[in-house]
Amino acid sequence: MKLQISVIFLVLAFASCQDNTKKTIAATINSPEINYLIEVADFSKIAKEPNITILDFRKSESYQKEHLEGAINIWRTDLENPSFPYGGMMAPAAQIEKLFSRLGIKNGNTLVIYDDNGLCDSARLWWVLQNYDYTNVKLLHGGIEAWKAHKGSVTKDTIAVLKSDFKLPKNPSMKYTLSKEEMLAAIDQKTIILDTRSVDEYSGKRHKKGAFKGGRIPKSKFVDWANAIDYHGGKKIKPLKELESIYTKHLPSVNDTIFVYCHSGVRSAHTTFVLTQLLQYKNVKNYDGSWIEWSSMNEYPFEKDSITTIIN
Predict the structure, then answer these.
(1) Which CATH class for the 37-155 domain?
(2) What is the pLDDT of residue 308?
(3) What are the domain boundaries of the chain?
(4) Are 191 and 258 in contact (CB under 8 A)?
(5) What pLDDT is recorded for position 16?
(6) What value, to the nearest 5°, has the Cα angle with vertex 91 and ends 48 and 167?
(7) Which of helix, strand or coil describes residue 251?
(8) How far is CA 62 from the centre of its chain?
(9) What is the largest CA-CA distance in the chain?
(10) How far is it, in rounded angstroms, from Cα 42 to Cα 49?
(11) 37-155 with 177-311: one CATH topology?
(12) If we measure between CA atoms, which residue out of 154, 139, 221 comes closest to residue 187?
């Protein structure tokens, strides 16, 4: 009898262990805390470590009102290449090295980036650094609002920085970007072209300032970048199951070649992050010039469904 009870106990214990393992795995694959994301609870444990550099990636007026203690402020314009006749293009390596050196960022520092816009802006900086092969980056999930909800302290004070000599890796891979010529060629190929703007921009009903006309790149499929986050709530990224239901109807295979774009390559950088880092798509590139550049090329084809008005 004792032997029988022992066997039953072992079977039940094994089954319980198996069940707990399944729950642990399920919790992991359904959590957005994968790869480059960091939750505020985890960040709070390392926030004051000497190798952590906190980057507030918002406009300066937002930073001046309040920001995380120790945060340094940069904005999109700091990372734009001024040599183009249109805005928004990714800065060259030398410009980033000069900026980061002025801000006192050292090679090997872990950069924790946050914003107040569902990681849309933070993902742009992540994307830029990925192209230059600087991967020691974390995006603060939920941004400054999640931090405050966690009772994290904010301040108006700025910190003094000592200049450094920051260098990006040589011969960068530029693995997540593509040119207008590559996008043009993709129209006649099996490549999936994904427009991540709003539905009014996709239809051509409206376009944002900076673009030369309304419309879309031919053959584009449409998934608004904001569908991936709780846009009207905490602006955190949705669970993986929800992300899968949003994207797999348009992007059936993780091995598909996918070119994404938006107005200036910011919202589409966020989609690039979601697709590659959370949904494990293998061949995704973000068109840096996006609609601003494409719409400036009079000889390039485009489609539209509506008369266009300009939006800010």
Answers:
(1) alpha beta
(2) 61
(3) 37-155, 177-311
(4) yes
(5) 43
(6) 50
(7) coil
(8) 20
(9) 87
(10) 13
(11) yes
(12) 221
Mean local confidence (pLDDT), 71-100: 96
Mean pLDDT of 149-157: 96
Q: How far apart are CA 249 and CA 20, in angstroms?
A: 32
- Using the structure block, give the residue that is written with the tokens 């009903």: 205
Q: Which CATH superfamily is domain 177-311 in?
A: Rhodanese-like domain (3.40.250.10)
The whole-angstrom separation of Cα 294 and Cα 224 is: 19
Point out which residues pair with 113 in neighbouring strands.
55, 139
- Span 242-299, pLDDT tens digits: 999 999 999 999 999 999 999 999 999 999 999 999 999 999 999 999 999 999 999 9
Closest C-alpha to 216, from 138, 283, 270, 268 = 268
Residue in the structure block whose two tokens are 């539905």: 199
Total length of the chain: 312
Taking only the tens place, the pLDDT of each residue in 7-32 is: 333 334 434 444 433 332 233 334 44
Q: Strands across the sheet with 192-195, in order?
A: 177-178, 283-287, 257-261, 192-195, 220-222
